[in-house]
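Quick one, C-alpha coordinates below:
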Protein backbone atom coordinates (compact mmCIF):
# COMPACT_ATOMS: atom_id res chain seq x y z
CA UNK A 1 0.00 0.00 0.00
CA UNK A 2 1.39 3.38 -1.01
CA UNK A 3 0.51 6.46 1.05
CA UNK A 4 1.02 9.86 -0.49
CA UNK A 5 2.33 11.85 2.46
CA UNK A 6 2.01 15.19 0.64
CA UNK A 7 -1.71 14.67 -0.04
CA UNK A 8 -2.31 13.39 3.49
CA UNK A 9 -0.59 16.45 4.91
CA UNK A 10 -2.64 18.77 2.72
CA UNK A 11 -5.87 17.14 3.89
CA UNK A 12 -4.91 17.83 7.52
CA UNK A 13 -3.86 21.40 6.78
CA UNK A 14 -6.67 22.50 4.49
CA UNK A 15 -9.50 21.30 6.72
CA UNK A 16 -9.20 24.26 9.10
CA UNK A 17 -11.87 23.20 11.58
CA UNK A 18 -10.44 19.78 12.39
CA UNK A 19 -6.88 19.86 11.14
CA UNK A 20 -4.09 18.15 13.00
CA UNK A 21 -2.28 21.41 13.73
CA UNK A 22 -5.25 22.95 15.53
CA UNK A 23 -5.86 19.74 17.48
CA UNK A 24 -2.25 19.73 18.70
CA UNK A 25 -2.39 23.41 19.65
CA UNK A 26 -5.70 22.93 21.45
CA UNK A 27 -4.39 20.06 23.59
CA UNK A 28 -0.96 21.58 24.29
CA UNK A 29 -0.29 22.77 27.81
CA UNK A 30 1.81 25.66 26.48
CA UNK A 31 2.10 27.78 23.36
CA UNK A 32 3.84 26.00 20.50
CA UNK A 33 5.10 28.18 17.64
CA UNK A 34 4.44 26.39 14.38
CA UNK A 35 6.35 27.18 11.20
CA UNK A 36 5.79 25.66 7.78
CA UNK A 37 8.46 25.40 5.10
CA UNK A 38 7.08 26.30 1.67
CA UNK A 39 8.33 26.55 -1.89
CA UNK A 40 8.93 29.97 -3.45
CA UNK A 41 5.94 31.53 -5.19
CA UNK A 42 3.57 28.77 -4.12
CA UNK A 43 0.52 30.67 -5.40
CA UNK A 44 0.57 33.14 -2.52
CA UNK A 45 -0.08 30.35 -0.01
CA UNK A 46 1.74 32.22 2.77
CA UNK A 47 -1.39 33.99 3.98
CA UNK A 48 -3.47 30.84 3.67
CA UNK A 49 -1.07 28.87 5.87
CA UNK A 50 -1.20 31.62 8.48
CA UNK A 51 -5.01 31.40 8.35
CA UNK A 52 -4.77 27.63 8.82
CA UNK A 53 -3.09 28.19 12.18
CA UNK A 54 0.64 28.36 11.50
CA UNK A 55 2.48 31.14 13.30
CA UNK A 56 4.91 31.73 10.45
CA UNK A 57 6.51 30.28 7.34
CA UNK A 58 9.97 30.02 5.83
CA UNK A 59 10.65 29.75 2.11
CA UNK A 60 13.00 27.06 0.86
CA UNK A 61 15.78 26.77 0.08
CA UNK A 62 16.40 28.03 3.58
CA UNK A 63 18.60 31.09 3.85
CA UNK A 64 20.71 31.20 7.02
CA UNK A 65 19.83 34.85 7.74
CA UNK A 66 16.09 34.22 7.32
CA UNK A 67 16.28 31.18 9.58
CA UNK A 68 18.11 33.18 12.26
CA UNK A 69 15.48 35.96 12.09
CA UNK A 70 12.70 33.41 12.43
CA UNK A 71 14.32 31.63 15.37
CA UNK A 72 15.04 34.93 17.12
CA UNK A 73 11.45 36.04 16.59
CA UNK A 74 10.11 33.11 18.62
CA UNK A 75 12.94 32.05 20.93
CA UNK A 76 15.11 35.08 21.73
CA UNK A 77 13.12 36.65 24.58
CA UNK A 78 16.01 38.83 25.83
CA UNK A 79 15.70 41.28 22.89
CA UNK A 80 12.07 42.17 23.66
Amino acid sequence: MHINIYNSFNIFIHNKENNLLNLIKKDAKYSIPTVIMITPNSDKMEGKYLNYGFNDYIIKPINKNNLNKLLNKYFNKSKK
